[in-house]
Design brief:
two-stranded antiparallel ribbon, 18 helices, alpha/beta, seven-stranded mixed beta sheet
């Protein structure tokens, strides 16, 4: 069966093909290839330079760059102790064993390449729309290929002096895309931080944040290592009441606002002179990563399991992540979707009120920014407003933006975008019309404003291997407050910048 029949296109006896001067075969009837390409479409010209092309139109450019990468690899090896001379001699290369092995490898490579080219999913073709992904960009492929040649492990600066710096910069760029603050001099909002990671990190993050106050409370009890702060250390509940930390109820401990929890270590340092090293040792004894979720639940008699809430359009990885984190997949609670496949705020409101009535805490409410099946964007603005409403009732939770699919659409927001501006309804001047060789389309106003509010979410996930046109697997995680990353580190389970060394590998579930 040919591709046209497979995709549901009706074959016509009139369909013909012609070959252009480059040797590529173009359909001349019923195809986008027959549409005249506008010479003044600058956006199409720019985008065309980034991809190999449906018919490998940019093959020569891509090949030249691959050869350039290999030549730089060769030069790097030749320049490393050049006086050592050849390890693999010409005589070895001329031997029968060497030639036989090389021939087998070449044959296997060519056969595998042929099979892949014939039977792989044709992501690169405009005719194929069976998945959310499409072609990968040439810059990403070249970067992936050249980095594989050096096999760096971004666990520390010593193991990967170049690529770890590149990952830190990539994390900063993602934070900037979402509107997070990167200027330490700006004291009005926290400094953001991002990195490349795999699944499971977000569920552990919200779990550890929720139980941090309970673990710390155990250390503040009578005869505990932090008991000396019990008579003076006070915090604000999420409802705005000032109380001694040791006098907080279980419910109040479970519902401290995110900034309140994150500032505790710095406050302990400033107000009591408690060093990060000492606090680390305390949390190694009392923290959830040491004693486990079940232990703290039993100690505080938490009978109703804490829940995650997100729309029923969620990706299957959410209940899977709940299982991995020990939260339980049943506690990843689905919220009804409206007729546009967006999270229904009324239903969420109802569930949150039930949580207050039943004294059942909530880890996080997740806004899906681009659902897998529908491409819908949840009303993040409304979710943030509901959190404020329920904080006054004593219920607080993390707000997370699951922008795995839709995060990169933040790039479509004008630099001077302002919520509520009537000008948002008009597409940018540089875009074209909705028809033609490469139709242009702008985001609708509601979507623009919900994407804009990602800057107010506590954390955001994004998958560069989706709308970023990057090879699998590439996941990104950004925090509005960089101190959140210390909640999931294994070697330093405290939340303070003081005395830490920038590294990547300890801030996720990967071993690296």
């Amino acid at each position: 069966m040919d591709l046209k029949s497979k995709m549901g296109f009706k074959k016509s006896d009139k369909d013909t093909t012609t070959t252009d001067t480059a040797g590529a075969t173009n359909a001349t009837n019923g195809s986008i290839y027959t549409t005249k390409q506008p010479e003044d479409d600058e956006s199409h010209q720019m985008i065309s330079s980034l991809f190999l092309g449906p018919h490998a139109e940019n093959y020569d450019w891509f090949k030249d760059n691959l050869i350039g990468v290999l030549e730089k690899t060769r030069d790097g090896r030749l320049n490393y102790f050049p006086e050592d001379g050849r390890f693999i001699s010409e005589g070895v290369q001329a031997s029968t064993k060497f030639k036989d092995s090389s021939t087998k490898i070449s044959n296997a490579v060519q056969k595998a390449a042929e099979i892949l080219s014939k039977h792989s999913v044709p992501w690169w073709s405009p005719r194929y729309a069976g998945h959310m992904c499409m072609d990968m960009s040439m810059p990403s492929l070249l970067g992936y290929f050249m980095t594989m040649l050096y096999n760096p492990n971004n666990v520390s600066i010593e193991a990967s002096p170049i690529t770890m710096v590149a990952e830190i910069q990539a994390g900063q760029q993602l934070c900037e895309m979402f509107g997070y603050n990167l200027d330490p001099a700006n004291k009005d909002v926290p400094v953001g931080w991002g990195h490349v990671t795999c699944g499971g990190t977000v569920t552990r993050l919200a779990r550890n944040l929720k139980f941090y106050p309970l673990a710390l409370r155990n250390a503040v009890k009578d005869f505990g290592p932090l008991s000396f702060i019990g008579g003076t250390f006070a915090v604000d509940t999420c409802a705005g009441n000032r109380k001694l930390f040791k006098d907080l109820t279980k419910w109040e401990l479970l519902n401290l606002k995110v900034p309140t929890v994150l500032e505790i270590p710095d406050r302990l340092s400033v107000e009591f002179g408690i060093s990060s090293t000492f606090l680390q040792k305390v949390m190694e004894k009392y923290g959830i990563q040491s004693v486990g979720l079940g232990s703290l639940e039993r100690q505080y008699d938490i009978e109703r399991p804490i829940q995650y809430m997100l729309a029923n359009t969620r990706h299957y990885s959410w209940p899977k992540g709940g299982a991995v984190a020990g939260i339980g997949s049943h506690n990843v609670v689905g919220v009804e979707a409206d007729f546009e496949a967006r999270l229904d705020l009324d239903n969420l409101d109802k569930k949150l009120q039930q949580s207050v009535d039943n004294q059942q805490a909530v880890y996080a409410v997740v806004a899906i920014i681009g659902s897998t099946e529908e491409g819908a964007v949840d009303p993040l603005r409304g979710i943030l407003e509901l959190r404020k409403k329920y904080q006054s009732k004593g219920l607080s939770f993390v707000v997370h933006g699951d922008a795995a699919w839709g995060g990169y659409f933040a790039n479509m927001l004008p630099k001077d975008f302002k919520p509520g501006d009537p000008a948002n309804a008009n597409p940018p001047k540089q875009t074209g019309g909705g028809e033609g060789f490469v139709p242009d389309a702008s985001l609708r106003v509601e979507t623009q404003e919900d994407i804009y509010r990602l800057r107010d979410a506590d954390s955001v996930t994004v998958d560069p291997h989706k709308a970023g046109y990057i090879p699998y697997p590439a996941g990104g995680l950004c925090y509005r407050d960089e101190r959140m990353r210390f909640l999931i580190t294994w070697s330093s389970p405290y939340i303070s910048r003081a005395g830490t060394t920038e590294s990547i590998g300890i801030y996720g579930v990967e071993g690296r």
